[in-house]
Specification:
Helix content: 25-40%
Number of domains: 2
Distance between the termini: 47 Å
Oligomer: single chain
Strand content: 15-25%
Number of helices: 18
Number of strands: 14
Shape: globular
Radius of gyration: 24 Å
Length: 433
């Protein structure tokens, strides 16, 4: 295994330090490796520092370097600070020398054009040695996936509805508002919206076509959106119809979170994530900040990627073309919006209470986390959002108990198709156990 690090900053690897946004960490990294770094505590950071590194620049004109790194978290876990150490025994490697090795090193063609940090399941030093790009004697013991640290086991467990509710009531949130989200596979699923999700090889599935999907659904089903005033309203409706968006569903009803935890991956350990936050961190459907973030969905990939978030002061930031386009979209729904966007707002994660425009959202007591540009919600929580995790086992029994409380396919998804599916399952012939 090795770290593959790409940057657009000239001379970055010759300096004493460099920072990556956490959103760029583990791009183009396979699921099984990424799962080992779901949390970033000391064992995970030490594992990263044990791996050899290939330091690269965006494009193909500048050589790559081999070395090691030191890493630590900064900015409440939002950034990873690395200190690169280049191996002076290994000459700089031109891209033309690496190009024939791309498949062997799992470097995809488009990777070299995006700043990111991937962890690859290939033996960097062995491949370079085979092609005589590093001298003899530099190959040591290699780190494999089996050597990676495991995620910390959950501290709270439940195997029945009663045990779950007992654990819910034991948590003290200090008067903060509380929401829940169920994950049917605690090892696989992360707190990220569907628009940012990746395939098993770490490639983005939907992110680059977000604006086109938004418009295509409006074109093909415009009548359904006639009553929506804000872009956020449309995103909520699109989420309801399963279009990937930058919204992540949460609920104020713990039993709904438990149902979603148990309804699929029946033999896998699930989890209910308990999120608590102060009331002033919660926005409503007509929030100005929510409008700013929601309308990012309408910017093209090229415009979103060209936003410079460290472009001097607020005036310089707002003078950029992508921001002028974003302001145009915001003013369509809020004509009196003051044309002054804050960089940190566009990269934040907001809790939003949208309109209950359909029976499903109403019954599920639904709210949403709205993710800004490449925003990441730390799996261990943030200063604004505190997280607790309740591990759930014995899912079949839990689902039967929830059914006795009238929480099932028919009520959670109150449509005739769901009711028919639930009734058919309920009355299906089963042999006696």
């Amino acid at each position: 295994m090795y770290n593959f690090l790409v940057t657009s900053q000239d001379g970055a690897w010759d300096r004493s330090g460099y920072e990556y946004d956490k959103s760029r960490f583990l791009e183009y990294t396979s699921d099984d490796i990424a799962a080992s770094f779901k949390e970033l505590k000391e064992p995970q950071l030490l594992a990263l520092m044990e791996l050899p590194c290939l330091f690269a620049y965006e494009g193909t004109s500048r050589p790559m370097r081999v070395g090691r790194l030191e890493v630590r978290l900064r900015n409440n876990g939002k950034t990873l600070f690395i200190r690169p150490t280049l191996d002076e025994r290994i000459d700089p490697i031109e891209f033309e020398q690496i190009k024939p090795l791309q498949a062997a090193l799992d470097i995809r063609d488009w990777e070299i054009n995006r700043t990111h940090w991937a962890v690859k399941d290939e033996d960097l030093l062995d491949v370079l040695h085979q092609f005589q790009l590093i001298p003899e004697g530099l190959i040591g013991s290699k780190v494999t996936k089996e050597d990676l640290p495991e995620t910390s086991p959950p501290q709270i467990h439940a195997d029945s509805v009663g045990a779950f509710i007992e654990q819910v009531f034991r948590l003290d949130h200090g008067g903060r508002e509380v929401f829940y989200r169920g994950h049917s596979n605690s090892k696989k699923y992360r707190l990220e919206p569907s628009i940012f999700r990746k395939d098993p090889h770490g490639n983005f599935v939907y992110r680059d076509t977000e604006d086109r999907m938004y418009r295509e659904l409006l074109v093909s089903n415009s009548f359904d959106f006639n009553g929506d005033i804000y872009t956020l309203d449309r995103l909520v409706r699109m989420q309801h119809y399963s279009l990937p968006t930058r919204l992540l569903d949460i609920t104020s009803n713990p039993l709904i979170g438990l149902y979603f935890c148990c309804k699929s991956n029946i033999d896998e350990e699930g989890e209910v994530i308990v999120l608590s936050m102060d009331a002033d961190h919660i926005k409503y459907f007509d929030s100005d900040t929510a409008s700013c973030i929601a309308n990012l969905s309408r910017l093209s990939k090229n415009l979103r990627d060209s936003i410079l978030f460290d472009a001097g002061g607020v005036e310089d930031f707002n003078s950029q073309r992508p921001l002028r386009q974003l302001l145009h979209f915001i003013k369509e729904e809020k004509p009196f919006f003051e044309p002054r966007l804050e960089p940190e707002h566009l990269r934040s994660v907001l809790c939003v209470k949208g309109k209950h425009t359909n029976s499903r959202i109403s019954f599920q007591s639904g709210a949403f986390l709205l993710f800004g540009d490449e925003a990441v919600l730390d799996e261990e929580g943030t200063p604004d959002i505190t997280l607790h995790r309740i591990a759930i086992t014995n899912k079949r029994t839990v689902l039967k108990e929830l059914d006795r409380l009238n929480i099932n396919e028919s009520t959670v998804f109150p449509y005739i198709e769901s009711s028919a599916k639930y009734i058919a399952q309920k009355f299906a012939f089963r042999t006696r156990e």
